[in-house]
Design goal:
Bound molecules: adenosine-5'-diphosphate, magnesium ion
Largest sheet: 6 strands, antiparallel
CATH superfamily of the largest domain: RecF/RecN/SMC, N-terminal domain
Radius of gyration: 22 Å
Oligomer: single chain
Helix content: 40-55%
Shape: globular
Strand order of the largest sheet: 2-1-4-5-6-7
Order of helices and strands: EEEHEEEEHEHHHEHEEHHEHEHEE
Length: about 375
């Protein structure tokens, strides 16, 4: 899959730009605060219908402007135009071939994998970082999962407010049964899908990591459902969806008192996590920074293979300023593993992070103050 062109109007610090991409490697060079990340954010928005770094959509609109427009031409089997229109006064509009589309129809047309300095936090960061990493992938390849997850999150919010009001009056508790049933049924679907994806992702990650570490180390990625005890390491999962349902139900019973005391939902995949083991040891606790970085790199490259396996095409790879974060060895590994597989869009403050041979085959763009020179 390829992104052929992109145009931005009043998006972040861009007034108006249009550009065409190279099908292979694209390098955007610029000093800090010139608009490099903004450009990748615009591409991300076309893939996922929202930003990963704006608290609220209107932040994406250029200061002083009324509306922001992002549009891009993508090429899979056929060409397709995606549009994202945001204004201060009206609802966000998503467009596929210039026709209004629901988020379910919009997300999944352009598949991306984003690797930024924040990604390096995948191993060390919070469980929520790791769930997000997983959800962003699954949502792009599975519109049903995306819907189920959103619905599930809504149920958790409603159930939380019920638990809060039950602290004042127990009369509200009678409604809990209804929410429990939905929590279990949607939550189980979310977990089954996550587990199946991690199962595939883990095989790719293991193989790629063996290559990166020159066969010296064994990386194991494990899905940790919310009820898993991380101290116990590798655990038995469920044998059937029914078994998972009854495990979920049991957890809800056991946590009921605590949930009422705290006033929010404690059971469910909003508390899932991923565990990284390196030669059987918890990478988060015992790994060196270098080992953690190699693991992240392997995971990101595994994402590519996973998406290729699920959709038949490699996603577009966005690398935001990561070259300076990686040492020379990992830099070369990354670019050579990507080479010829996926269209890659890289930002950097310094072209010197690339070898002359790499620069030669890339399209190089200079960014200054929201302009492409
Ligand atoms: N809504 C907005 N309107 C105008 N400028 C913005 C907006 N949001 C961010 N910016 C500007 O964008 C610049 C940061 O761009 P960014 O892409 O993050 O830089 P970098 O090149 O370092 O990645 C800053 O100068 C910031 O003020
Ligand atoms: Mg940046």
């Amino acid at each position: 899959m390829r992104l052929e062109s992109l145009s931005l109007q009043d998006f972040r610090n861009y007034a108006s730009i249009s550009l065409n991409f190279n099908p292979g490697l694209n390098i955007f060079v610029g000093d800090n605060a010139q608009g490099k990340t903004n450009l990748l954010e615009a591409i991300y928005v076309l893939a996922l219908s929202k930003s990963y770094r704006a608290q609220r959509d209107p932040e994406l609109i250029r200061q002083g402007a009324d509306q922001a427009l992002v549009s891009g031409q993508i090429r899979r089997l056929a060409s397709m135009e995606l549009g994202f229109l945001l204004s201060h006064t009206e609802r966000k509009r998503l467009l596929v071939n210039q026709k209004a589309a629901t988020a379910s129809r919009f997300v999944g047309n352009l598949n991306i994998v984003l690797f930024s300095p924040d990604s390096l936090q995948l191993v060390k960061g919070t469980p929520s970082d790791r769930r997000r990493f997983l959800d962003i992938q699954i949502c792009q390849i599975d519109p049903v999962y995306r819907k189920t997850l959103l619905e599930y999150q809504r149920v958790v919010r409603q159930r939380n407010s019920l638990l809060k009001s039950a602290q004042e009056s127990r009369a509200h508790l009678s409604q809990l049964v209804v929410w429990d049933r939905q929590l279990i049924s949607l939550g189980t679907e979310v977990m089954l899908r996550r587990q199946a994806v991690v199962d595939k992702l883990q095989r790719y990650t293991r193989d790629i990591h063996r290559q990166i570490s020159q066969e010296l180390e064994n990386l194991h990625l494990i899905y940790q459902p919310f009820f898993a005890d991380p101290e116990k390491g590798d655990l038995e999962l469920w044998d059937s969806p029914e078994e998972l349902k009854s495990m979920f139900m049991l957890q809800l019973q056991q946590l009921r008192r605590e949930e009422l005391r705290r006033g929010y939902t404690l059971a469910g995949p909003q508390r899932d996590d991923l565990l990284f083991l390196i030669n059987g040891m918890d990478l988060r606790k015992y790994g060196s920074q270098g080992q953690q970085r190699s693991a992240v790199l392997a995971c990101i490259l595994a994402e590519l293979e996973l998406m290729q396996g699920e959709t038949g095409e490699y996603p577009v790879v966005l690398l935001d300023d990561v070259m300076s974060e990686l040492d020379q060895k990992r830099r070369i590994q990354l670019l050579s593993l990507l080479n010829d597989k996926a269209q890659t869009i890289v930002t950097t403050t310094n072209l010197g992070s690339f070898t002359a041979e790499i620069v030669q085959r890339a399209a190089v763009f200079n960014i200054r103050q929201g302009r492409i020179l």
